[in-house]
Specification:
This protein is mostly helical. Helix content is 66%, strand content 3%. The chain contains eight helices and two strands, in the order βααααααααβ. It has a two-stranded antiparallel sheet with strand order 1-2. Helix 2 runs antiparallel to helix 3 and helix 2 packs parallel to helix 7. The protein is globular, with a radius of gyration of 20 Å.
């Protein structure tokens, strides 16, 4: 390339066969929980603990376990690689774990709605608006920390952060956007709840697998690392490639 012309950076990343099986097991478990939940809605399963909507139900506890593993894996990467950005990401997933298990944004959202005296808007209750404000505040704080760490991260950690950010956006789509849609639209509630909770489960499984893949990353700056197949500039989720044998995948950035 000529001088003065911006050079594209190509990064060759490989998928590990064994970790693909790890992802497949995660996704199969998710699908089993989703199918059992459908059976519960149809009256074929009687215990509410099999519903993916049930607090402290089997599916929700499974989700907590995945979030806990993600936090531990990111902390291990932060310590082993000496990269603060992985610690910053671990804080985000630690918040998601505590938020899911302790209902932080629901509880604080009620206080915020009362304090600010929110009025209903677009079928959204004051409680819903309070929860949205709390989520935005925590999101700003946590992503602000990640953003600062990103400025001082190396190339490979930045690439991983782009992929994690895209996956978290997908998670937020199911957890926030779909949740608000089903509250506002007021019809087909079982369908919306299935899409919301089922989508969150599947995306969290992909995140757990992806973070596990980062452990295969060599310490050399230009070495290849395992990856998911997310374009750096978009949110297309190439799940099909994750279930294939080890095949080199190129990402243009």
């Amino acid at each position: 390339m000529g001088q003065g012309k911006k050079r594209g950076c190509t990064m060759v990343l490989h998928l590990e066969k064994k970790s693909n099986r790890f992802l497949l097991l995660f996704l199969l478990a998710d699908l089993v929980f989703i199918l059992i939940h459908i059976g519960f809605n149809l009256g074929l399963v009687t215990s509410p603990l099999f519903s993916i909507e049930e607090d402290l139900g089997y599916a929700e506890v499974y989700q907590y376990i995945k979030e806990y593993w993600i936090v531990l894996l990111l902390l291990t990467l932060a310590i082993g690689r000496g990269r603060f950005i992985y610690f910053a990401w671990s804080l985000l997933f630690a918040y998601l774990l505590f938020d899911d298990s302790l209902q932080i944004h629901e509880r604080l959202g009620g206080y915020v709605a009362d304090a600010l005296q929110f009025l209903p808007i677009l079928q959204l209750r004051p409680q819903d608006l309070g929860e949205l404000v709390v989520s935005l505040l925590f999101g700003t704080l946590l992503f602000g920390t990640i953003g600062i760490a990103y400025l001082h991260a190396d190339h490979i950690a930045r690439q991983a952060s782009k992929h994690l950010f895209a996956l978290v956006l997908l998670l937020a789509f199911f957890g926030v956007v779909v949740d608000m849609l089903h509250i506002a639209i007021r019809w087909g509630e079982p369908f919306w709840l299935l899409i919301e909770d089922g989508g969150e489960m599947l995306i969290m499984s992909v995140i757990a697998w992806y973070v596990f893949q980062l452990g295969f990353e060599p310490k050399r700056e230009l070495a290849d690392i395992a990856q998911l197949g997310l374009p750096n500039s978009g949110l297309d989720l190439a799940l099909d490639s994750s279930l294939m044998p080890a095949v080199p995948v190129r990402i243009q950035s």
